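Hey, can you fold this?
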Amino acid sequence: MRNAALLLGVIGGVLALIVGFFIYGYTVFIDEYGEIDGLAYQVDRVGLSRTVAFVAPLLAIAGGGMARIRALWGGALLLVSAGLMLYAFDFGVFTMFPIGMTALGGVFAIAAGKPDEPKSNF
């Protein structure tokens, strides 16, 4: 289950990275060239969208990478990433797979059978 969480987290993070590039570029394009009536409008919360476009893929990839050794931490990062994307970008045709994969990877990581080994964190 930890391997599945790793795979889902990394693939979901890469897809979130693609969505993040598009969201960030879209907001910059609209700031630079203005809105196009009937076609392109600026998002409501530009700062939030840009921040989540940067942070969510990082959390997803890091959480996926941590899922094998530190399943609880990795799962928490994956779920936070999915929650941020859902809150900032809503659930749509381009965000359904990054959100779904990171959320499922987070659930898999947290539900991994054996507990983490007690290790020093420093």
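Oh, and this one too while you're at it.
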Amino acid sequence: MDFAVGHRVEKGVTVVKISGEIDVFTSPRLREELLDIIDAGGVHLVIDLGEVTFLDSTGLGVLVGVYHRLRARDGSMSFMGVNDRVRRVFHVTQLTKIFVLHHSLDEAIAAHESAAR
């Protein structure tokens, strides 16, 4: 599966769909795509990892860096569709302490809406 990043706006959040492997080779492109989305005004992101087959420490570093940039702009970032393999990476690195992993887009949007109140 080739690496790809796409996004759309739905109910006040920007849904970013990533597919393929997030690793040392694809992380620079991921960083660039996410920063472009933020620069275009997307500050509340739901990252769809449903088609991500691999995630390494370089990719995690990109996600943490983007998270901090969003926080500086009063933004947010959560995740959905995380498979067991990628979920394990979040748990082992203890990133579940800062990142919320949702099961569905509806759940992620509902959490965003309740936090915005």
